[in-house]
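re the bet — no i am not wrong, look at it urself. input seq straight from the record:
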Amino acid sequence: MHNADPQELEKFGELAHRWWDPDGEFRPLHQINPLRLGWMTSFVPLQGLRVVDVGCGGGILAESMARTGADVLGIDLSVKPLKVARLHALEAGVASLDYREIAAEALAAEQPASFDVVTCMEMLEHVPDPASVVQACSRMVKPGGWVFFSTLNRNLKSFLMAIVGAEYVLNMLPRGTHEYARFLQPHELAGFARQAGLSLHASTGLSYNPVTQRYALSADTSVNYLLACRRL
């Protein structure tokens, strides 16, 4: 059994044709992508490195990392977004980029300690067992390599902003995109990382200003946050 929720895969599969529309359902991903890419490359320049993007979806992050000169593999279990990702990369002429329909755990067993960098963005809150994905990410990265996570905190503020506000008031995301019970508090994710043999190097928050409709990196990790880890 894959560590995946069939309903989640179907949900994102049905929206796959909208993945690269900067004004569509995935607009927030387009808006935050330069921020998260810039934050990661402040720790490790990606040019010439082998990178795997776990839960790549339609390839927004994977393609942007390939454009920096990294050799990128994007993996996902939702077939339609992968098809969209492949087509967009082909049309854009982006080299050093490949996609596979494979679970993180399966790739970790197949290619342990094979990647310089592992990214897992906006994915952990959509799987039944996030600790298993974190363990797989640790197994895939080389000793001393970097693993980057991003997800949603679990508290009243995140419920009001990420679900009530984003999905029901501002209509930034399709209703039902997130399930509050699957949000992870930073100490929980950090605990999964430590258990997997990763050391926490840095963290940052990602804040949204509804007036300017802009995202920015900040010290506030109460809603969206990112962790930078290294393999021991």
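see?? Residues 25 and 173 are 6 Å apart (CA to CA). told u. also Strands lie at 50-54, 71-76, 97-101, 115-121, 141-152, 198-209, 214-218, 224-231. so pay up
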